[in-house]
Design a protein that fits this description.
- The relative contact order is 0.11.
- The strands form two sheets. Strands 1, 2, 5, 6, 7, 8, 9, 10, 11, 12 and 13 form an eleven-stranded mixed beta sheet that branches. A two-stranded antiparallel ribbon has the order 3-4.
- The chain is built from three helices and 13 strands; from the N terminus they run H-H-H-E-E-E-E-E-E-E-E-E-E-E-E-E.
- A hairpin with a 6-residue loop joins strand 12 and strand 13.
- The longest helix has about 120 residues.
Length: about 400
C-alpha cells in the first residue's frame, strides 16, 4: 500500500513537470528548487528518524531500569510481609498470655474474697475471745506454764492472720505486675507493627509509582517506534520524488546537449588554483567516516574552507544541490566529448556552498562553488571525480586527466 502511494506521488510529480513546461530555464530552475527542498526534507526526516531511534533506546533503557527497581521493591514488600506476620503472631501470643494472667488475677481475687470472709469470721471470733471468752479460758489455767503457752498461741494466731493477708496481697500484685509487663510488650509489638505497616504502605505506593513509570516508558517507546515508521515512510517518499525530479533534469540536460552536437572540449584544468595537499588518492581504502572498505572513486584536495572551485572544463551542469548519498553540497557537470572520442562528466563534492544551478552552461574556469566539509566529511576539502563515459559506474583516476602538483 505504501509503495503504491509513493509511486503515485512520483507519477504526479513527473506529470506536474511535463504539464507545465514554461521555458527551459524556468523549468530547470523550478526542478532544481524542488530538488533542494526534497534534499532538505530528506535530511530533516533522517534527523527525525535518528532522534526517534535514540528516544526509543532511552525509553527501553529507562523501562529496564524501572523494572529492576520494581523487582527490588517487591522483594522489600515480601520481607515486610514476613516481618508483619511474625509481629502479628507475637501480638496474638501476648494477648493469650494477658488473658491467662487476667484469669489468674480473677481467680486470685475470688480466693482472696473467700479467705477475706473466713478471716472476718475468725477475727470476729477472736474479738469475742478478747472481750470475754479469754477471761473464761484464763480461769481454767492451773499454772504459769499454761498461761505462757496460752499467750504464745494468741500471738501465733495474730501473726499467721497477718501473713495470710500479706501473701494474698503479694500474689495479686505480682499477677497485676505480670499483666502490666505483658501489656507493655503487646503495646511495643503493636507499635512495631504500625511502623512495618507504614513502611509496607510506602513500598506499595512506590511500587505503584514505578509501575506507572514503566507504563509511561513503554508508551514513549511505542510512540518512538511509530515516529520511526512515519519518518522512514517520509524518507522513502522524498527519495522517490527526488529521483523522479533528477531523472527529469537529466532528460532535459541530455536533450539540450543533443541539440548542440558541437559540445566538446580538449582537456581539463585543475579545479583549484591552490590547495595544501592531496589528502586521499583514488583507490580502495577504509572510509574515514563509516570505517567500511570501499572504492574511493575520486581524489581529495585539502584546502581552506571557502576556497573557490572552478569548472575543470566547459559543459552543462547536471546537478547542483544537496546529495543524500554523502557528497553534501555537490555539482555534476557534463562536458561532452573530449578529443579522445569519449564523453566525460566531473563531480565536485563536500562544497560549503554551490555557486551555479542545474541546466546552466558553464565555461572552463568559471566558479561553481566553494570548498567545505558538508556530507560525510572529516575536514575541508574538494572531492573530485572524473567519469569516463558520462556515468559514475565508469569513474576513473583523476590523476590521468587533471593537472596536479
Amino acid at each position: 500500500m505504501r509503495a503504491a502511494s509513493l509511486f503515485l506521488a512520483a507519477a504526479c510529480l513527473l506529470l506536474s513537470v511535463s504539464v507545465y513546461p514554461a521555458t527551459a530555464a524556468t523549468s530547470m530552475s523550478s526542478l532544481q528548487n524542488k530538488l533542494d527542498k526534497l534534499s532538505q526534507s530528506i535530511v530533516q526526516h533522517k534527523k527525525e528518524l535518528s532522534n526517534a531511534k535514540k528516544k526509543e533506546q532511552a525509553a527501553k533503557a529507562l523501562e529496564s531500569e524501572l523494572k529492576e527497581k520494581v523487582t527490588v521493591v517487591q522483594s522489600q514488600i515480601s520481607v515486610l510481609k514476613g516481618q508483619i506476620a511474625e509481629v502479628q503472631n507475637s501480638i496474638g501470643l501476648k494477648e493469650q498470655e494477658i488473658a491467662v494472667k487476667e484469669q489468674q488475677i480473677t481467680e486470685k481475687e475470688a480466693e482472696i474474697a473467700d479467705q477475706w470472709g473466713d478471716f472476718k469470721q475468725h477475727m470476729a471470733a477472736m474479738q469475742e475471745l478478747r472481750d470475754g471468752g479469754s477471761v473464761a479460758m484464763l480461769s481454767a489455767v492451773n499454772d504459769l506454764y499454761e498461761l505462757l503457752t496460752f499467750n504464745e498461741v494468741m500471738q501465733d494466731i495474730s501473726i499467721k492472720d497477718t501473713e495470710i493477708l500479706d501473701n494474698m496481697k503479694n500474689a495479686k500484685e505480682a499477677l497485676e505486675s505480670d499483666k502490666l509487663t505483658l501489656e507493655s510488650q503487646r503495646s511495643e509489638l503493636q507499635s512495631k507493627k504500625a511502623d512495618l505497616d507504614a513502611q509496607n504502605s510506602q513500598m506499595r505506593a512506590k511500587q505503584n509509582e514505578l509501575n506507572s513509570s514503566v507504563a509511561a516508558a513503554q508508551m514513549s517507546a511505542a510512540e518512538a517506534q511509530q515516529a520511526q515508521k512515519d519518518a522512514q515512510a517520509a524518507i522513502e517518499s522524498d527519495e522517490m520524488n527526488y529521483e523522479a525530479v533528477k531523472k527529469q533534469i537529466q532528460k532535459m540536460i541530455a536533450a539540450a546537449a543533443a541539440s548542440k552536437p558541437t559540445l566538446s572540449f580538449t582537456g581539463f584544468i585543475c579545479p583549484l588554483k591552490s590547495y595544501s595537499r592531496i589528502s586521499s588518492e583514488y583507490g580502495w581504502r577504509k572510509n574515514p567516516v563509516t570505517g567500511v572498505n570501499k572504492l574511493h572513486a575520486g581524489t581529495d584536495f585539502a584546502a581552506p574552507g571557502g576556497t573557490p572551485i572552478y569548472a575543470a572544463a566547459s559543459g552543462y551542469v547536471q546537478v547542483a544541490g544537496w546529495s543524500s548519498g554523502g557528497y553534501g553540497n555537490y555539482v555534476i557537470i557534463y562536458h561532452g566529448k573530449m578529443s579522445d572520442g569519449n564523453q566525460y562528466s566531473t563531480l565536485y563534492g563536500h562544497m560549503r556552498s554551490v555557486a551555479t544551478s542545474a541546466g546552466k552552461y558553464v565555461q572552463q574556469g568559471e566558479i561553481i562553488g566553494y570548498v567545505g566539509s558538508t556530507g560525510n566529511s572529516t575536514g575541508n576539502h574538494l572531492h573530485l571525480e572524473v567519469w569516463k563515459g558520462g556515468s559514475k559506474a565508469n569513474a576513473v583516476n583523476p590523476r590521468g586527466y587533471i593537472p596536479m602538483k
